[in-house]
Every structure is written in structure tokens, then in C-alpha cells.
Amino acid sequence: MTISRKLLGISSALALIAIPAGAEPATYKLDPTHTAIEFKIDHFGFSSPTGKWMSVDGELTLDEDNPASSSVSLTVDVTKVNSGVEALDEHLNKEDFFYTDVYPEASFESTSVELTGETTALVTGDLTLRGVTKPVTLDVTFNKIGENMMGVKTAGFSATTTLLRSDFDMATYAPGLSDEVTLEIETEANLVTE
User: Fold this and answer.
1) How far is the C-alpha of 127 from the C-alpha of 158, rounded, in Å?
2) What is the pTM of this model?
3) In whole angstroms, what is the distance from residue 13 CA to residue 93 CA?
4) Low-confidence ranges of the chain (pLDDT < 50)
5) Regarding the domain with residue range 10-191, which homologous superfamily does it belong to in the CATH classification?
6) Phi, psi dihedrals of residue 193, rounded to the nearest 5°
7) Pairing of strands 177-191, 26-30
8) Residue ranges covered by each domain of the chain
9) What are the tens digits of pLDDT across the range 104-125?
10) 123 vs 40, 73, 143, CA distance in Å?
């Protein structure tokens, strides 16, 4: 529940803390090979299965001088859900879950960034999933900013949030299959230099 790629990553406004004073706002592109959104859901009390998306595209703008004006936007290819079980992935794409024939993508657009610590922030935005848009707040941690092994300036973040499936018209098998879903996002974003 993309939300979040970001849903994810979405937290990048925090990188401001590590950028030299007086720096201009900078645009970073999410690295799809180092970005993942994982979901976890309670399965009738027996276990908490997980699944993930790695098909996430997006960018963020980091503004050190005015963190509240920083922003992030991303889209997730929901059809690429990966639970590790092919038959389950096929079911998740059907109408009673993500209904990807009609809604193949999910998106997140940030609306505010609130710094809560030296390396943490709350990033709130609009998550659109299955054609429904709801506000979502990500609890974000800034991990690191610097040059990666390829000499590209990179910012890394982790984020978590919880969603209610029923908010997005996806309450199939509830309450046995929990309405609440936990999302965990890991992302790296590379500075755009052109």
C-alpha cells in the first residue's frame, strides 16, 4: 500500500538537516533498486504475512532553509505486488483487494513536513489507492546523506505508518484478516544534477 514508495521515501525532507547551511532546494530521484514498501497484516491471529512492492517511482525536493516547504511525490505499480506466493499475488490483484485492472497505480503526495527530532519527522500527505484518497502520516527517520559507491549524492530514509483497509474499500475477510495494515518503507534517493 504504496503509499506511501511512500508512502516512502517520502520522509526525505529530513535530509535538510545534513545539507550545508544556505543550500538551495534540491531535487532527488527515488532509486527503484533501493526502494521497497513492505506491508504486514494479521492473518486470523495465526501469523502476520508480509508482501512488498519495489516498483516505485518518485522524487523529493529538500529545502534546508524552510523544511516545511519540502515535498515528496511517488507512484507505485500496484500490479507488481510480491508476497512470495504467485497464487496469492494473483488474488491480491483482483477486485476484492487491489483491483488493479481498474486501479493499477497508487500515489502519495506530501502536504506537510513536521520535524520531530534531529533525524526524525512526520510527513503527512494524500495517499490514493483503489481510486480513494485519504490523508496518511509517515513516521520518518533520516538515515544518511552522502556520496554512494558510484560517487552520486544519495539520501536514505526509513518510514512506517498504519492504514485501514476499509478506508480504501478493501475490507475483504475482515475482521479475521485484520483491517489494520502496517507499512514499512526503505528508500534511497539520488540527487538530480541535470
Assistant:
1) 18
2) 0.84
3) 32
4) 1-20
5) Lipid/polyisoprenoid-binding, YceI-like (2.40.128.110)
6) -110, -5
7) antiparallel
8) 10-191
9) 999 999 999 999 988 899 999 9
10) 21, 11, 15
